[in-house]
Amino acid sequence: MTPNLRGALLGLLAFGIFSTHDILVKTLGGTYAPFQIVFFSVMFGFPIVTILLLRDEKRANLRPRHPWWVAARTAASVIVGICVFYAFTVLPLAQVYAIIFASPLLITILAIPMLGETVGWRRGLAVVVGLVGVVVVLQPGATDLSLGHGAALLAAVAGAIASLIVRKIGREERSVVLLLYPMVANFVLMGAAMPFYYQPMPGMDLAALAVISALALMGSACLIYAYRAAPAVMVAPMQYSQILWAVIFGALLFDETLDLPTLAGSAIIIASGIYIVLREERGGRSTTTPVLRTRTRMGTPGGLRIAPFLSSERRGPQPSADG
Questions:
Q1: DSSP-assigned states of every residue in 5-63
Q2: Which residue among 3, 109, 202, 240 is least packed, with the fewest CB closer than 10 Å?
Q3: Residue 311: pLDDT above 50?
Q4: Domain residue spans in the chain?
Q5: CA atoms 136, 142, 143, 147: torsion sign
Q6: CA distances from 45 to 37, 179, 186, 294, 302 (A)
Q7: pTM of the full structure
Q8: What distance in Å separates the CA atoms of residue 122 and residue 203, rounded to the nearest whole number?
Q9: 270 closest CA partner among 292, 298, 241, 248
Protein backbone atom coordinates (compact mmCIF):
# COMPACT_ATOMS: atom_id res chain seq x y z
CA MET A 1 0.00 0.00 0.00
CA THR A 2 1.41 3.38 -0.98
CA PRO A 3 1.83 6.10 1.69
CA ASN A 4 -0.74 8.29 -0.09
CA LEU A 5 -3.36 5.55 -0.09
CA ARG A 6 -2.59 4.68 3.54
CA GLY A 7 -2.95 8.33 4.54
CA ALA A 8 -6.26 8.68 2.67
CA LEU A 9 -7.65 5.49 4.23
CA LEU A 10 -6.55 6.59 7.71
CA GLY A 11 -8.27 9.90 7.07
CA LEU A 12 -11.47 8.13 6.08
CA LEU A 13 -11.24 5.98 9.20
CA ALA A 14 -10.63 9.04 11.39
CA PHE A 15 -13.67 10.90 10.13
CA GLY A 16 -15.78 7.76 10.36
CA ILE A 17 -14.79 7.56 14.03
CA PHE A 18 -15.58 11.24 14.50
CA SER A 19 -19.00 10.69 12.96
CA THR A 20 -19.67 7.92 15.48
CA HIS A 21 -18.58 10.36 18.18
CA ASP A 22 -21.10 12.90 16.89
CA ILE A 23 -23.90 10.32 16.84
CA LEU A 24 -23.36 9.60 20.54
CA VAL A 25 -23.40 13.34 21.23
CA LYS A 26 -26.68 13.68 19.34
CA THR A 27 -28.18 10.69 21.16
CA LEU A 28 -27.27 12.00 24.60
CA GLY A 29 -28.32 15.51 23.58
CA GLY A 30 -31.90 14.34 23.48
CA THR A 31 -31.78 13.97 27.27
CA TYR A 32 -29.00 16.16 28.62
CA ALA A 33 -27.95 19.78 28.13
CA PRO A 34 -24.85 20.37 25.97
CA PHE A 35 -23.12 21.89 29.02
CA GLN A 36 -23.36 18.56 30.83
CA ILE A 37 -22.16 16.55 27.85
CA VAL A 38 -19.17 18.82 27.30
CA PHE A 39 -18.32 18.80 31.02
CA PHE A 40 -18.15 15.03 31.33
CA SER A 41 -16.49 14.43 27.95
CA VAL A 42 -13.72 16.84 28.99
CA MET A 43 -13.45 15.27 32.42
CA PHE A 44 -12.90 11.85 30.87
CA GLY A 45 -10.25 13.39 28.61
CA PHE A 46 -8.03 14.58 31.46
CA PRO A 47 -6.27 11.21 31.93
CA ILE A 48 -5.08 11.55 28.33
CA VAL A 49 -3.58 14.96 29.10
CA THR A 50 -1.93 13.55 32.21
CA ILE A 51 -0.20 10.91 30.09
CA LEU A 52 0.96 13.59 27.64
CA LEU A 53 2.34 15.67 30.50
CA LEU A 54 4.24 12.69 31.87
CA ARG A 55 5.70 11.93 28.44
CA ASP A 56 6.69 15.52 27.72
CA GLU A 57 10.48 15.63 28.10
CA LYS A 58 10.74 19.42 27.88
CA ARG A 59 11.64 21.13 31.11
CA ALA A 60 9.25 24.03 31.11
CA ASN A 61 6.23 25.36 32.91
CA LEU A 62 2.73 25.62 31.54
CA ARG A 63 2.78 29.40 31.14
CA PRO A 64 1.99 30.28 27.52
CA ARG A 65 4.51 32.23 25.47
CA HIS A 66 1.68 34.07 23.75
CA PRO A 67 -0.90 34.49 26.54
CA TRP A 68 -3.34 36.66 24.58
CA TRP A 69 -3.38 34.36 21.56
CA VAL A 70 -3.75 31.32 23.82
CA ALA A 71 -6.61 33.06 25.65
CA ALA A 72 -8.31 33.90 22.34
CA ARG A 73 -7.93 30.33 21.11
CA THR A 74 -9.23 28.99 24.42
CA ALA A 75 -12.34 31.17 24.17
CA ALA A 76 -12.88 30.13 20.55
CA SER A 77 -12.48 26.44 21.45
CA VAL A 78 -15.04 26.71 24.25
CA ILE A 79 -17.49 28.32 21.83
CA VAL A 80 -16.87 25.59 19.25
CA GLY A 81 -17.47 22.76 21.71
CA ILE A 82 -20.74 24.02 23.15
CA CYS A 83 -22.10 25.26 19.80
CA VAL A 84 -21.33 22.09 17.86
CA PHE A 85 -22.70 19.84 20.59
CA TYR A 86 -25.88 21.92 20.71
CA ALA A 87 -26.24 21.99 16.92
CA PHE A 88 -25.93 18.20 16.74
CA THR A 89 -28.67 17.95 19.34
CA VAL A 90 -31.28 20.04 17.52
CA LEU A 91 -30.43 19.80 13.80
CA PRO A 92 -30.11 16.90 11.35
CA LEU A 93 -26.56 15.56 11.15
CA ALA A 94 -26.15 16.35 7.46
CA GLN A 95 -27.23 19.95 7.96
CA VAL A 96 -24.74 20.51 10.79
CA TYR A 97 -21.90 19.04 8.74
CA ALA A 98 -22.85 21.14 5.72
CA ILE A 99 -22.63 24.33 7.78
CA ILE A 100 -19.39 23.54 9.59
CA PHE A 101 -17.82 22.48 6.28
CA ALA A 102 -17.71 26.23 5.65
CA SER A 103 -14.84 26.47 8.14
CA PRO A 104 -12.07 26.06 5.49
CA LEU A 105 -13.70 28.88 3.53
CA LEU A 106 -13.64 31.08 6.62
CA ILE A 107 -10.04 30.09 7.30
CA THR A 108 -9.13 31.34 3.83
CA ILE A 109 -10.84 34.69 4.50
CA LEU A 110 -9.55 35.19 8.05
CA ALA A 111 -6.00 34.22 7.05
CA ILE A 112 -5.75 37.59 5.30
CA PRO A 113 -5.75 39.69 8.50
CA MET A 114 -4.43 37.01 10.88
CA LEU A 115 -1.58 35.49 8.83
CA GLY A 116 -0.96 38.20 6.25
CA GLU A 117 -2.13 35.77 3.57
CA THR A 118 -2.68 36.94 0.01
CA VAL A 119 -5.70 35.30 -1.58
CA GLY A 120 -5.78 35.22 -5.38
CA TRP A 121 -8.96 35.77 -7.35
CA ARG A 122 -9.48 32.05 -7.98
CA ARG A 123 -9.52 31.12 -4.31
CA GLY A 124 -11.50 34.26 -3.56
CA LEU A 125 -14.13 33.21 -6.07
CA ALA A 126 -14.17 29.70 -4.61
CA VAL A 127 -14.86 31.19 -1.16
CA VAL A 128 -17.76 33.24 -2.52
CA VAL A 129 -19.21 30.16 -4.24
CA GLY A 130 -18.84 28.13 -1.05
CA LEU A 131 -20.61 30.78 1.01
CA VAL A 132 -23.43 30.72 -1.54
CA GLY A 133 -23.65 27.00 -0.76
CA VAL A 134 -24.09 27.85 2.93
CA VAL A 135 -26.96 30.17 2.02
CA VAL A 136 -28.52 27.37 -0.03
CA VAL A 137 -28.37 25.05 2.99
CA LEU A 138 -29.84 27.65 5.34
CA GLN A 139 -32.62 28.72 2.92
CA PRO A 140 -33.22 32.11 4.55
CA GLY A 141 -36.80 33.18 4.01
CA ALA A 142 -37.92 29.72 2.97
CA THR A 143 -37.33 28.07 6.33
CA ASP A 144 -37.32 29.18 9.94
CA LEU A 145 -33.73 29.62 11.04
CA SER A 146 -33.28 28.33 14.57
CA LEU A 147 -30.77 28.79 17.35
CA GLY A 148 -29.22 25.54 16.16
CA HIS A 149 -28.39 27.06 12.77
CA GLY A 150 -26.83 30.06 14.50
CA ALA A 151 -24.84 27.76 16.78
CA ALA A 152 -23.46 25.79 13.82
CA LEU A 153 -22.47 29.00 12.00
CA LEU A 154 -20.84 30.41 15.14
CA ALA A 155 -18.96 27.12 15.58
CA ALA A 156 -17.65 27.37 12.00
CA VAL A 157 -16.39 30.92 12.60
CA ALA A 158 -14.90 30.16 16.03
CA GLY A 159 -13.33 26.96 14.70
CA ALA A 160 -11.66 28.86 11.88
CA ILE A 161 -10.27 31.41 14.34
CA ALA A 162 -8.99 28.70 16.70
CA SER A 163 -7.35 26.85 13.82
CA LEU A 164 -5.60 29.96 12.51
CA ILE A 165 -4.30 30.84 15.97
CA VAL A 166 -2.71 27.38 16.13
CA ARG A 167 -1.23 28.04 12.70
CA LYS A 168 0.13 31.37 13.94
CA ILE A 169 1.70 30.31 17.26
CA GLY A 170 1.82 26.51 17.08
CA ARG A 171 5.53 26.28 16.34
CA GLU A 172 6.44 28.37 19.38
CA GLU A 173 3.81 27.28 21.89
CA ARG A 174 4.04 23.91 23.62
CA SER A 175 1.53 21.34 22.43
CA VAL A 176 0.42 20.58 25.97
CA VAL A 177 -0.36 24.26 26.58
CA LEU A 178 -2.51 24.43 23.45
CA LEU A 179 -4.33 21.30 24.53
CA LEU A 180 -4.66 21.89 28.27
CA TYR A 181 -5.96 25.46 28.43
CA PRO A 182 -9.16 24.87 26.38
CA MET A 183 -9.86 21.69 28.33
CA VAL A 184 -9.49 23.45 31.70
CA ALA A 185 -11.65 26.35 30.50
CA ASN A 186 -14.34 23.96 29.29
CA PHE A 187 -14.22 22.03 32.55
CA VAL A 188 -14.47 25.15 34.74
CA LEU A 189 -17.13 26.98 32.70
CA MET A 190 -19.30 23.94 32.03
CA GLY A 191 -18.89 22.94 35.68
CA ALA A 192 -20.21 26.36 36.72
CA ALA A 193 -23.33 25.65 34.66
CA MET A 194 -23.90 22.23 36.21
CA PRO A 195 -26.08 23.44 39.15
CA PHE A 196 -28.54 24.81 36.59
CA TYR A 197 -28.49 22.02 33.99
CA TYR A 198 -27.32 18.82 35.68
CA GLN A 199 -29.50 15.75 35.44
CA PRO A 200 -28.56 12.47 37.15
CA MET A 201 -27.01 10.05 34.69
CA PRO A 202 -27.28 6.26 34.78
CA GLY A 203 -24.12 4.24 34.39
CA MET A 204 -24.84 3.49 30.74
CA ASP A 205 -24.91 7.18 29.83
CA LEU A 206 -21.73 7.87 31.77
CA ALA A 207 -20.11 5.02 29.88
CA ALA A 208 -21.29 6.60 26.62
CA LEU A 209 -19.57 9.85 27.62
CA ALA A 210 -16.38 7.94 28.31
CA VAL A 211 -16.71 6.38 24.86
CA ILE A 212 -17.11 9.87 23.37
CA SER A 213 -13.76 10.88 24.86
CA ALA A 214 -12.15 7.63 23.69
CA LEU A 215 -13.49 8.11 20.15
CA ALA A 216 -12.13 11.68 20.09
CA LEU A 217 -8.70 10.29 21.01
CA MET A 218 -8.88 7.45 18.48
CA GLY A 219 -10.03 9.70 15.67
CA SER A 220 -7.37 12.28 16.45
CA ALA A 221 -4.66 9.61 16.54
CA CYS A 222 -5.76 8.23 13.15
CA LEU A 223 -5.74 11.74 11.71
CA ILE A 224 -2.25 12.44 13.03
CA TYR A 225 -0.95 9.24 11.42
CA ALA A 226 -2.81 10.06 8.21
CA TYR A 227 -1.11 13.45 7.92
CA ARG A 228 2.25 11.91 8.68
CA ALA A 229 1.76 9.25 6.00
CA ALA A 230 0.46 11.39 3.16
CA PRO A 231 0.41 15.01 1.96
CA ALA A 232 -2.34 17.18 3.38
CA VAL A 233 -4.00 17.40 -0.03
CA MET A 234 -4.70 13.66 0.17
CA VAL A 235 -6.08 13.74 3.70
CA ALA A 236 -7.90 17.06 4.09
CA PRO A 237 -10.75 16.29 1.64
CA MET A 238 -11.54 13.10 3.58
CA GLN A 239 -13.45 15.24 6.10
CA TYR A 240 -16.23 15.57 3.54
CA SER A 241 -16.92 11.85 3.82
CA GLN A 242 -18.79 12.75 6.99
CA ILE A 243 -21.75 13.84 4.89
CA LEU A 244 -22.14 10.20 3.79
CA TRP A 245 -22.04 8.99 7.38
CA ALA A 246 -24.58 11.68 8.25
CA VAL A 247 -26.98 10.41 5.58
CA ILE A 248 -26.57 6.77 6.65
CA PHE A 249 -26.70 7.26 10.42
CA GLY A 250 -29.35 9.98 10.18
CA ALA A 251 -31.69 7.70 8.24
CA LEU A 252 -31.04 4.57 10.33
CA LEU A 253 -30.98 6.06 13.82
CA PHE A 254 -32.82 9.38 13.77
CA ASP A 255 -35.30 9.04 10.91
CA GLU A 256 -33.67 11.99 9.13
CA THR A 257 -33.86 12.60 5.40
CA LEU A 258 -31.51 14.63 3.23
CA ASP A 259 -33.54 17.41 1.62
CA LEU A 260 -32.62 18.89 -1.75
CA PRO A 261 -31.31 22.27 -0.47
CA THR A 262 -28.98 20.55 2.02
CA LEU A 263 -27.76 18.18 -0.71
CA ALA A 264 -27.22 20.97 -3.25
CA GLY A 265 -25.62 23.32 -0.72
CA SER A 266 -23.34 20.57 0.58
CA ALA A 267 -22.18 19.79 -2.96
CA ILE A 268 -21.34 23.46 -3.55
CA ILE A 269 -19.50 23.83 -0.23
CA ILE A 270 -17.54 20.60 -0.70
CA ALA A 271 -16.57 21.47 -4.29
CA SER A 272 -15.32 24.91 -3.28
CA GLY A 273 -13.45 23.50 -0.27
CA ILE A 274 -11.70 20.86 -2.35
CA TYR A 275 -10.81 23.48 -4.95
CA ILE A 276 -9.19 25.67 -2.29
CA VAL A 277 -7.18 22.69 -1.00
CA LEU A 278 -6.01 21.86 -4.53
CA ARG A 279 -5.05 25.49 -5.22
CA GLU A 280 -3.01 25.63 -2.04
CA GLU A 281 -1.29 22.37 -2.90
CA ARG A 282 -0.32 23.72 -6.32
CA GLY A 283 1.16 26.76 -4.62
CA GLY A 284 0.99 30.35 -5.69
CA ARG A 285 0.56 33.62 -3.91
CA SER A 286 -0.22 31.65 -0.80
CA THR A 287 2.88 31.57 1.40
CA THR A 288 1.22 30.12 4.47
CA THR A 289 -1.31 27.65 2.96
CA PRO A 290 -3.72 28.27 5.86
CA VAL A 291 -6.18 25.47 5.05
CA LEU A 292 -3.65 22.75 4.30
CA ARG A 293 -1.50 23.66 7.29
CA THR A 294 -4.39 23.94 9.72
CA ARG A 295 -5.51 20.49 10.77
CA THR A 296 -7.88 20.45 13.67
CA ARG A 297 -11.05 18.59 14.36
CA MET A 298 -13.96 20.81 15.41
CA GLY A 299 -16.34 19.95 18.19
CA THR A 300 -14.38 17.44 20.27
CA PRO A 301 -13.48 19.38 23.43
CA GLY A 302 -12.23 16.24 25.15
CA GLY A 303 -9.98 15.16 22.31
CA LEU A 304 -6.59 16.07 20.95
CA ARG A 305 -6.18 19.00 18.59
CA ILE A 306 -4.36 17.83 15.51
CA ALA A 307 -2.11 20.65 14.37
CA PRO A 308 0.10 21.02 17.48
CA PHE A 309 1.03 17.33 17.45
CA LEU A 310 2.35 17.20 13.91
CA SER A 311 6.08 17.45 13.43
CA SER A 312 7.32 20.97 12.77
CA GLU A 313 8.79 20.09 9.41
CA ARG A 314 5.35 19.02 8.17
CA ARG A 315 3.84 22.27 9.42
CA GLY A 316 6.35 24.68 7.98
CA PRO A 317 5.46 27.28 5.33
CA GLN A 318 5.39 26.18 1.76
CA PRO A 319 7.24 27.86 -1.11
CA SER A 320 5.12 30.50 -2.78
CA ALA A 321 3.68 30.47 -6.31
CA ASP A 322 0.22 31.45 -7.73
CA GLY A 323 -2.93 31.37 -5.54
A1: HHHHHHHHHHHHHHHHHHHHHHHHHTTS-HHHHHHHHHHHHHHHHHHHHHH------S-
A2: 202
A3: no
A4: 3-299
A5: positive
A6: 12, 11, 11, 22, 5
A7: 0.84
A8: 53
A9: 241
